Structure formats: C-alpha cells, structure tokens
C-alpha cells in the first residue's frame, strides 16, 4: 500500500468520520462515540505502518490488527472500505440481516478482518497469541490492537499483558483509546483505572503517552518509535469521545446511540470543513 502523508491522512480521517455517521444513522443502531474517538489511531496504523494488501487480504506474511473494542466496528469498516478491502456500497448494509458488516467484526465474513471480536477483554489476548505465533515461526509479522479504556477493567486484559511481557513480544503494539467515558458514565465513576501509564509500565510495557490522540502527527510519531528489544509497546492515547461532531464530543449518551436523520445531517454538514 502507498503510504499517505499527514495532509492526506487528515482528509481521510474526515471521510472516515462521515462514513461512521452514515453507517450508524442508516442502521439506526451502533456506537458512534468510541468509533469517532479512535479514527486517527486506526487510520495511522493502516496507512503508515501495516504491511497489508487489499488485493491479497489473506497473505500469511501480512501484519495483523485486532479491534479489541469490537463495538467500534464502524471505524474499522470505514478504514477497510476506504482502503479497498471491499466495496464501500456495503456501508449501507451495516447491521442488516445477512450483511457482512455486522455490529461486531466477523473474520469469516469481512475481508481484512483478522479476528472476530466483541466480548471485551478478549481481543488483546488474541493479539498476544498472534504475536507469539509470529515469534515462534520467526515470521516478519507485527501485530497491532486497539482497546477501549473501559475495557481495561477486565482482568483478562492484564493476564494478556503479563504474557506479552513474559514472552518478550516486541512485535506487539497495544493502543488504548483513552477517551475517559464508557456506557455507564466516566471511567472514574464506574471503576477507576488509576495511573494507566504506571500500570502498563509495571506490567512490562514501554509506554508512549499522547496528549492528543486525535492529532495525526502525534499518533504517527508514536507508531514509528522502534520497540525496544524484548519489550511490547503501549500507546496510551488521550482522545475525545465523539471526536469531530461537536454535539457528540465528551457526551456519554453517544456511546451506543444512533443519530436521527436530522442529527446525521447536522453532523455531516459540520464535517464539510
């Protein structure tokens, strides 16, 4: 894939947000807040780092991506569709019966999806397994995964992190979409996570913390910092839930609510520039 420059990526991120809103509004169902907050993380990963080919999505030597926060599938589908893994006409079928684009990613149906996810906490374990497999086979594959911050309340996440450090998985990059909100309120209200940087470091990760995980330059710079030998990497990105749509930003109510036709039109108008 041809690497996109920063200006092209900014433009792409706007289009991805439009795709997300169109999909969720069309289905009258979905998760806009956390899909919008991770746009830059996913766009930069696919368009500047990963070795993938939409014409050969099952290449054994390809890099792998796991969307651990599977409910943010609209962002994932938008990236894969814009890259040409499938026809963007599929967007209109999001969450429809028999569509390949269901509410959570299905690796058996969607070209480019490496793991079926949805149950929070499990995706990062899958990513650790993929990275361990690449190490065992001495393969070139790198593995990337994105977790939600509320997801970090799952104990399985930390078991996976323990394994990543133990097996010295320097081919693994864990990204945290740290937007501070989850379905029932703020993270601190539901179950405080403490100092996440210190926690990941205590579990053996190299941590790069981003003050603005919705600024594409910061994300690219973090992705391009080489992993230290034997150390998995964590990019802890402070993001804005609902980023790009002013009436959704930092509003917990938009975690899992679809915009009405009027709200869709307002959001798309705002994203014209």
List the helices and strands and how they pair.
Elements: H1 6-27, H2 32-37, H3 39-49, E1 64-67, H4 73-83, H5 122-136, E2 143-148, H6 155-166, E3 172-178, E4 181-182, E5 185-186, H7 187-191, H8 196-202, E6 206-210, H9 216-224, E7 233-238, H10 261-270
Parallel strand pairs: 1-2, 2-3, 3-7, 6-7
Antiparallel strand pairs: 4-5
Name the beta content range. Answer: 5-15%
User: What is the end-to-end distance?
Assistant: 27 Å
Basic shape: globular
Assembly form of the protein: single chain
- What number is the mean pLDDT? 97
Strand order of the largest sheet: 1-2-3-7-6
Structural class based on helices, strands and sheet pairing: alpha/beta
Radius of gyration: 17 Å
Annotation field: number of helices: 10
In short:
The protein has 273 residues and is of the alpha/beta class. It is built from 10 helices and 7 strands.
Describe the structure.
With 273 residues, this protein is an alpha/beta fold. The protein is built from ten helices and seven strands. The protein has helices at 6-27, 32-37, 39-49, 73-83, 122-136, 155-166, 187-191, 196-202, 216-224, 261-270, and strands spanning 64-67, 143-148, 172-178, 181-182, 185-186, 206-210, 233-238. A five-stranded parallel β-sheet has the order 1-2-3-7-6, with helices on both faces. A two-stranded antiparallel ribbon has the order 4-5. Strand 4 (181-182) and strand 5 (185-186) form a beta hairpin. The chain starts with 5 loop residues before the first helix and ends with a helix.
């Amino acid at each position: 894939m041809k690497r996109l420059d920063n200006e092209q990526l900014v433009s792409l991120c706007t289009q991805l947000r439009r795709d997300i809103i169109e999909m969720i509004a069309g289905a009258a169902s979905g998760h806009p807040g956390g899909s919008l907050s991770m746009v830059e993380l996913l766009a930069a990963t696919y368009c500047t780092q990963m070795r993938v080919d939409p014409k050969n999505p099952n290449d054994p030597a390809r890099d792998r991506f796991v969307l651990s926060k599977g409910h943010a599938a609209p962002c994932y589908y938008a990236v894969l569709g814009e890259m040409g893994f499938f026809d963007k006409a599929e967007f209109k079928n999001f969450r429809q019966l028999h569509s390949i684009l269901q509410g959570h990613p299905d690796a058996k149906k969607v070209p480019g999806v490496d793991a079926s996810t949805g149950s929070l906490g499990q995706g990062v374990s899958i990513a650790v397994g993929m990275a361990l497999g690449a190490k065992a086979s001495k393969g070139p594959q790198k593995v990337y995964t994105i977790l939600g911050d509320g997801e970090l309340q799952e104990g399985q996440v930390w078991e996976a992190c323990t394994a990543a450090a133990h097996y010295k998985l320097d081919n693994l990059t864990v990204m945290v979409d740290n937007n501070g909100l989850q379905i029932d309120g703020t993270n601190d209200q539901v179950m405080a996570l403490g100092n996440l940087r210190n926690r990941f470091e205590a579990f053996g990760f190299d941590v790069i913390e981003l003050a603005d995980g919705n600024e594409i330059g910061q994300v690219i710079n973090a992705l391009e910092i080489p992993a230290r030998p034997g150390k998995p990497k964590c990019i802890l990105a402070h993001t804005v839930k609902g980023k790009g749509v002013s009436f959704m930003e930092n509003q917990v109510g938009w975690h899992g609510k679809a915009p009405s036709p009027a709200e869709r039109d307002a959001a798309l108008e705002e994203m014209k520039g």
